[in-house]
Amino acid sequence: MFTLSEENYLKTIYHLELETNKGISTNAIAEKLATKASSVTDMIKKLSEKEVVIYKKYKGVKLTDLGKKSAANIVRKHRLWEVFLVEKLDFSWDEVHEVAEQLEHIKSSKLIDQLDGFLNFPTHDPHGDPIPDRDGNLKTIEKSLLSTLTKNESGICVGVDDSSSEFLQFLDKKGITLGKKITILDKEDFDDSLSILIEDKKLSISNKIANNLYMKKS
Amino acid sequence: MFTLSEENYLKTIYHLELETNKGISTNAIAEKLATKASSVTDMIKKLSEKEVVIYKKYKGVKLTDLGKKSAANIVRKHRLWEVFLVEKLDFSWDEVHEVAEQLEHIKSSKLIDQLDGFLNFPTHDPHGDPIPDRDGNLKTIEKSLLSTLTKNESGICVGVDDSSSEFLQFLDKKGITLGKKITILDKEDFDDSLSILIEDKKLSISNKIANNLYMKKS
DNA sequence: ATATATTTTTAGGCAAGTCTAAAAATAATA
DNA sequence: TATTATTTTTAGACTTGCCTAAAAATATAT
Lengths: 218, 218
Ligand SMILES: [Mn+2]
Ligand SMILES: [Mn+2]
Ligand SMILES: [Mn+2]
Ligand SMILES: [Mn+2]
What we know:
CATH superfamily of the domain at 144-217 in chain A: Ferrous iron transport protein A (FeoA)
Structural class of chain A: alpha+beta
Number of helices of chain A: 8
CATH architecture of the domain at 144-217 in chain A: Roll
Largest interface: A-B, 18 and 18 residues
Bound molecules: manganese (II) ion
Largest sheet of chain A: 6 strands, antiparallel
CATH class of the domain at 144-217 in chain A: Mainly Beta
Number of strands of chain A: 8
Low-confidence stretches of chain A: none
Strand order of the largest sheet of chain A: 3-8-4-5-6-7
CATH topology of the domain at 144-217 in chain A: SH3 type barrels
Oligomer: homodimer
Strand content of chain A: 15-25%
Helix content of chain A: 40-55%
Mean pLDDT of chain A: 96
């Protein structure tokens, strides 16, 4: 169906579309894929031929329904494999992305259906990101950045925005993992840093951190 | 390290070398890979550059130690994934090969080590083929073709020579699976067909079948 | 040993995916 | 609005892996 390269472009456009509803620019794609704008233009033409994107010169691209479904399926595979690696093979959440980038391209619908069942139909990956269902639909849960909580509010940590391994390792070091309860003890006005209670430990975290942690208010 | 294509060539040469100890001919490789001799010559030069094969024009190729180790590692991955698919994801033994052909190219030593442990360090794949260890060594067990057993001899079915899905499905239909005890009741001289006892069922099988089943004598 | 057949290599070409440099279109600014 | 800056596209080239057709080497048969 799609080449490895085509799949990577599809996925990138899919992720970019979740952030805006405008057309996705050539440059935006090039940057995410660490490639050149001219290469992107070439590939966009191919994707347009295959009817997974709508392309008008100089106007950027948009995924068609087929394109969205195809991209969601790749994301589904990526996230299911991440769950597998963490749950079954004892990978930590900062190690899975690279391998999942490879595994997401394996072509076998039976494989992914069986894997889904083997993992007990997980709804979220190790970083708190939702796993699309077979039709490409994903149910978004109510979540807010930790930085938007006010003093004395509390919630459960349900996801990360930045899932770079540096950030994830930093969180591990601080004892911040998904599922933990966090309460805002205090907010510093001059640098927006937070004093929080996590489980029963007091911790001080910067605004940058708070901007990358998703909470489910409770 | 190696491209997908290079890995497939390495694996093919590796398998061919297990059958003979002469140099592997260009044509033999071409046939196994369903490609053209000229393409093989091209690739052989690249592999030779990378020092995984010794190549002398018109004389065929031989794997170097590095080449053997690299190839064995791909075979190791292939067979471990086949075990995973059968043991954990309920694939049948005739469905796994195609998917394993893809999975064997995933690059992550942690992945394969953990998978090995997760599967309890299996020594053989679902077709009875040995799984190379991390250093590329494989211990061959004592096994004989069913067709070489004599009347009243018996053994355990431990492997198949042909693992095409047609053959495997045929075996399923006849109730012949690995681990079952088989006794030779009679041999027909004129067509070399066999009358066998499998578990407690009598069965008549052709010489062609008997030539594709490996037994451990008991 | 010579002629014929087969195998292997070389030569040249093609598609995918990438790149650089230059041209064209669009956006931003004075 | 005219000019400058940025973005995007085109043109041409490169690498990988494959192909066909022809040449060269090796093997087989008379
Ligand atoms: Mn990921
Ligand atoms: Mn993830
Ligand atoms: Mn196989
Ligand atoms: Mn096998």
